[in-house]
Amino acid sequence: ADTGPQTGSLQGFWITAPSANITISNFTTAGSGGFVGGPGQSGLSTGIVIDNEQFTTATGEMLQVGNVNGFRVENSNFNSGDALQFKMSGAAQGVSVENSTIPEVRFLQPTSAAVDVAFQNVTFPALAPKVPTFSDVLGGPATVAITGGAWQNQVGTFQHGTGMAFSISGLSGYPTPSS
User: Fold this and answer.
1) Beta bridge partners of 145
2) How far is CA 88 from CA 3, 68, 77, 93, in A?
3) CA distance 11 to 17
4) Is-contact 56 79, C-beta < 8 A?
5) What CA–CA distance (Å, rounded) separates 129 from 124?
6) pTM score of the predicted model
């Protein structure tokens, strides 16, 4: 669906589970980025694509991802203060974020729920105040692969929390150990 600008309500979109093969394109919001397969829903949302989502204000809003398998965000721009948030009761598998700007990624799943996400050519801009780019609030397992892109949040930190495992390749601005 080509949704265009959001006017009136600032709730964003809702994709409830179970659902499959949905694409949302050109979604512009001054509020919530949307909810996909929320934590209180049974079943999975599969084959979901969010293409060219634009947050127009830095309001602390988010795109919240729940129980998904095959979820992709591409060509999207989140403003500083806006986040990609994982909050589910089951799993988020086959998640990818490509060619986008994402200031903050939050993992809010319980230890029984796993997230598997790949970032390709994503810019992680600086955040103020000192907010980590990646945070794992509840200690749920998260496997994060990053290929290419740029990390610009040196004023903050890269990560906070214990449940995350990272594989990083070619991320400009990310400190590499000296040999």
Assistant:
1) 118, 167
2) 25, 9, 23, 11
3) 18
4) yes
5) 15
6) 0.90
